[in-house]
Structures are given as C-alpha cells and as structure tokens.
Amino acid sequence: VQLQASGGGLVQTGGSLRLSCAASGSMFSFNLMGWYRQTPGKQRELVAYITSRGSIGYADPVKGRFTISRDGARNTVYLQMNSLKPEDTAVYYCNAQSASGVTSWGQGTQVTVSS
Question: What is the pLDDT of residues 85-100, one digit of tens each?
C-alpha cells in the first residue's frame, strides 16, 4: 500500500489548508486512516483519524478547527485545517492501519504557520 500526502504549505495565523492523502488501494480495506504530525525533537502525535465505519476522533488541540473526511471514490482522506496557529507548524503524515495489523505511512508534508 502506498499513501501519497499533499497539500502542505506556508500560511499565516488564522489561515486554512487542506491536506490530502491518496491511497493506492481501496481505503475501505483499512480499519483506520489518520493524520499525525511531528516537530523536531518530539514524538509523532495523532491529530485525527477516521475508521472504516466512519467513526472520527481528534486530538484535543485541534478539536473544532480541523476536520477529517474521506472520498471513497478517490480513495482519499482529507484534513481540513482552519484557524491555524503557529503551534500547528509540523510535518504532517498520513497513516493507514489494515485489518491484519500492518501500518503504512505516507511521506510527510510540511505545514508552516507564521505568526
């Protein structure tokens, strides 16, 4: 399985970005897909996830600002990020977990929020 992430960039505080993660196979073959982020010297942290049944979860720092969604026809998961803050600056990674327990990662996409 290959995951292709895109959509990062530079934005001012309060701005918006939409990240995309395109899977090479059917996204419904995964139990869960999600987005993580990582800053230098820190562990990668979960930002948001969506399960194959459509359950959704968010990390507390992004609740109310970020929205995860999916397009089954395009095998793509999106992360709409609004009201961005400088502390959202990180490399964002797409993640998928299969029913057999295999975890796949996409390449990171840099998000930089200027103050």
Answer: 999 999 999 999 988 8
